[in-house]
Design goal:
By secondary structure, the chain is an alpha+beta fold. The protein folds into two domains: 18-107, Multidrug-efflux Transporter Regulator, Chain: A, Domain 2; 117-287, Jelly Rolls. 33% of the residues lie in helices and 20% in strands. The chain has a seven-stranded mixed β-sheet with strand order 3-4-5-6-12-7-10, with no helix packed on it. Strands 9-8-11 form a three-stranded antiparallel β-sheet, with no helix packed on it. β8 (244-248) and β9 form a beta hairpin. It is globular, with a radius of gyration of 22 Å. The protein starts with a helix and ends with a strand.
């Protein structure tokens, strides 16, 4: 039977290895959700919440597992400090971090491709020879907010994206970094995505379609479209997870749950919101391509 001194030495060595691992996570490569949560002494659900509200965006392995590198771990430590010590809310933490969304370094062959909306919006505005003030007035947003979006200092909501698309005579589809040729097969890790101001993630499921705009929406708790919008066409929703509250012309309200399907005319002013404490995941199809 091991002596008491040997047991104490083994325990000390184990603690030393754990401390060394926490100080130099980059030596072991990327960390999983569980490993990262243990290092930070927080729950895995807290990590997912921070991702859902747009504080961080971890890389993904084959579109499945979240992965955290040493740089992102430092950001997470900063977020924890701002929350626990400075007692800041999510908007306050975002302001202190100086970014709306922080992207992890991509893992080779993994992760979705995030579109850079700001520069594309600036080019669209300049092609139409519109000034910041004129374009902002047409889209019903402030010139300062439009300027911040173009500079990459703010992310627009879904409603703002749609209004800007209408202002520039285009569709939200144009904000994705799309290849020049159609794609019949799109693996999960090659999807193009947009992330909005409130953390809503839009994943494009089809590239090159003529009449259908097919997407997956991932809506964090208490997040939504942040306003109503309308356009030509029809829309179809199939709920995969969570709940989604949707209002049409502020007169007709519905709460969608897993397994529910729902369609409506796109010319009805529509806004939507996740009222639950869990992420809502849904397939959303627009036809024709007008969103």
């Amino acid at each position: 039977m091991p002596s008491k001194s040997n047991l104490n030495e083994a325990a000390t060595n184990k603690k030393g290895r754990a401390a060394k691992y926490q100080q130099h996570p980059s030596r072991v490569g990327y960390l999983t959700v569980g490993q990262t949560a243990r290092i930070l002494r927080i729950s895995a659900s807290t990590l997912r919440l921070w991702e859902n509200v747009g504080l961080v965006s971890p890389a993904r392995s084959s579109g499945k597992y979240r992965l955290y590198d040493a740089d992102l771990l430092d950001v997470l430590k900063r977020i924890k400090y701002l929350r626990d010590v400075k007692k800041l809310s999510v908007p306050g933490i975002k302001q202190m971090l100086g970014k709306v969304v922080i992207e992890a370094k991509p893992v080779q062959g993994a992760g979705v491709q995030q579109a850079e909306v700001g520069p594309k919006l600036r080019r669209m505005r300049q092609r139409l020879d519109l000034g910041i003030v004129e374009a902002a007035n047409k889209a019903r947003i402030s010139p300062g907010f439009l300027s911040a979006i173009e500079l990459g200092k703010a992310n627009p909501s879904v409603a703002t994206l749609q209004r800007l698309a209408a202002t520039y005579n285009t569709t939200v589809l144009e904000f994705f970094e799309l290849p020049h040729h159609a794609r019949r097969l799109i693996p999960p890790h090659e999807r193009r995505t947009l992330t909005t101001e409130s953390g809503v993630c839009i994943e494009l499921l089809s590239i090159g379609t003529k009449m259908l705009e097919c997407m997956i929406f991932r809506v964090p708790p208490r997040a939504g479209s942040d306003g109503a919008y309308s356009h030509a066409g029809e829309e179809f929703i199939y709920m995969l997870e969570g709940e989604l509250e949707i209002w049409l012309d502020e007169l007709e309200g519905h709460t969608l749950k897993p397994g529910d399907s729902f369609w409506f005319e796109s010319n009805l002013g529509h806004r939507w919101f996740n009222p639950s404490d869990e992420e809502a995941v849904l397939i959303w199809v627009n036809t024709p391509i007008t969103f």
